[in-house]
Write a structure and sequence with these properties.
Blueprint (H helix, E strand, L loop, with lengths): L2 H61 L3 H4 L2 H43 L5 H41 L1 H33 L1
Helix pairs in contact: 1-3, 1-4, 3-4, 3-5, 4-5
C-alpha cells in the first residue's frame, strides 16, 4: 500500500518535469522563429538605408545642377549595383532562414515524439504545434511584405537608372508580385508538410 503513493508521486514528478521541458523547448522554438522574423525585418531596414543613400546621392547631384553627373555611367552603376546587392542579400537571408526553419521542423519531428510521448495528439497540437505554427505564420506574413518592399525598391533603383524600364516594368509588376506570393505560399506549404 505504501509503494503505490510513492510510485504515483514519482510519476507525477516525471510528468511535471516533462511538461516543464516541453514548455522550455516550445518557448525556445517560438523564440527562434521570432528571431528569424526580427532578422528579416532588420535586414530590410539596413538595405533600405543603403538604397536611400544611393538615391539621395543622385538627387544631390541633380540639386547641385550636375544633371549630367547624375545621369552618368558611374551613378547608374551605383544604383544598379545597389539593386543587385539588395537582391543578393535578400536571397541569402531567405535561403538561410528557410534552411533554419526546415532543420528546426525536422528536429522537432525527431525529438518531439520522444518528449511528448506521454501526451495525447490533441495535447501536442495545442501545447506545441499550434504556437509554433502561429509564429511561423507570422514569419511568413512578414516575409511576403519584405519581399514586396524589396521588389519595389529594386524596381525604383533600376527605373531611376534606366527610365525606359519604368514603362516596361509597370506593366509586369502585377505578374512579378503574383509569382513572389505563389513561391512564398509554396514554401509555407513545404514547411507545413514537414510539421505533419
Amino acid at each position: 500500500t505504501c509503494a503505490l503513493p510513492i510510485y504515483l508521486r514519482n510519476e507525477s514528478k516525471e510528468t511535471l518535469k516533462s511538461l516543464s521541458d516541453l514548455r522550455k523547448a516550445l518557448s525556445e522554438e517560438v523564440s527562434k522563429v521570432s528571431a528569424q522574423t526580427r532578422e528579416l525585418v532588420g535586414t530590410l531596414w539596413r538595405d533600405f538605408a543603403i538604397a536611400i543613400a544611393a538615391v539621395l546621392s543622385r538627387v544631390a547631384l541633380i540639386f547641385a545642377d550636375k544633371k549630367p553627373s547624375a545621369d552618368s555611367l558611374p551613378m547608374k552603376t551605383v544604383l544598379v549595383g545597389t539593386a543587385v546587392f539588395l537582391l543578393v542579400d535578400l536571397t541569402i537571408t531567405l535561403k538561410t532562414n528557410a534552411r533554419f526553419m526546415r532543420i528546426a521542423a525536422e528536429s522537432r519531428s525527431v525529438w518531439g515524439r520522444k518528449l511528448y510521448g506521454f501526451l495525447t495528439d490533441e495535447d501536442v497540437r495545442i501545447l506545441a504545434e499550434d504556437p509554433i505554427q502561429e509564429s511561423t505564420a507570422t514569419y511568413d506574413q512578414a516575409k511576403r511584405v519584405v519581399i514586396g518592399i524589396y521588389v519595389i525598391v529594386v524596381i525604383v533603383l533600376l527605373s531611376i537608372s534606366f527610365p525606359i524600364l519604368w514603362t516596361v516594368l509597370s506593366d509586369q509588376a502585377e505578374g512579378i508580385w503574383r509569382l513572389l506570393v505563389h513561391r512564398s505560399e509554396e514554401h509555407t506549404s513545404e514547411l507545413q508538410s514537414l510539421r505533419h
